[in-house]
Amino acid sequence: MTLCSFIKQSLRYSVFLLLFSTFSHADISISNPGPDLANYPNSAFTLPEGRAYIEAAPLTYNAPTATSTQQFNLGYLLRYGFTDDIELRLLSNGFTLQDNAKITGMSPQVFDVKWHVRDLHNNSYLPAVGIEMSVQSDWASTAFKSGTQPALSINFDQILPYDIAIEYNVGFLTTQNADANTVYQLALSWAAQRNISDDLAVFVNGYSNTAPDITSSAIGGGMQWTITHRIAVFTNITTGLSSSTPSLFSLLGFAVAL
Questions:
Q1: Domains of the chain
Q2: Whole-model pTM?
Q3: DSSP secondary structure string, 204-237?
Q4: Is cis: bond before 58, omega within 30 of 0?
Q5: Between the CA atoms of 111, 35, 82 and 135, what dihedral angle is there, to the nearest 10 degrees?
Q6: Statement: residue 203 has pLDDT above 90
């Protein structure tokens, strides 16, 4: 598949999901708890029981690094409220083109559970807290298999003065090195967001994943536009701060509440 064909397929996929969303109920909101795919950290909040989100990033680009080639992804995140405080999630970089479309296929599927531990306490300035556990499986095309990789994250949400909302995650993730050995990395991510109108918000965000002799960090920003009570679109553009991080990462996506 060429890059042009990839973009066309991505746009068709996006239009289908947006049209499909018109059949969802009027009382469903994309603003509560809001998309997780727009920026790097995930929120502490979960979907209400029985509700679902489809989040997709049909146009995602990672610039080449010293050890990897450029990559285009059709990523997605599927979310379902199992209870009001437990959310089941499936995510992936989706269909992937690498090295000028010389390598193509499906990226690994990640199975994820988020537990909303407690709500925000504005009077005491205590954050909302969630715990997220995930396992990256080997369900992927041969070129993108990288073994079973567990991860754990503690998610926090707070409201600062001037109506600035912040999210930050602390935890660990795992990767495999060139010798196929598991490497544990301390994972930190953050975002600060503020509404500039009822429907439009801007944010800055970043992350740093650290292990001995391995550091991957980035910083950037983006925006989120709530088109209707069921649909939001978002973009995120960041630059790498280390040699192992893509010098440019860009994402254009949307979320649909069902």
A1: 3-257 (2.40.160.40)
A2: 0.88
A3: EEEEEEEETTEEEEEEEEEEEEE-SSSEEEEEEE
A4: no
A5: 10
A6: yes
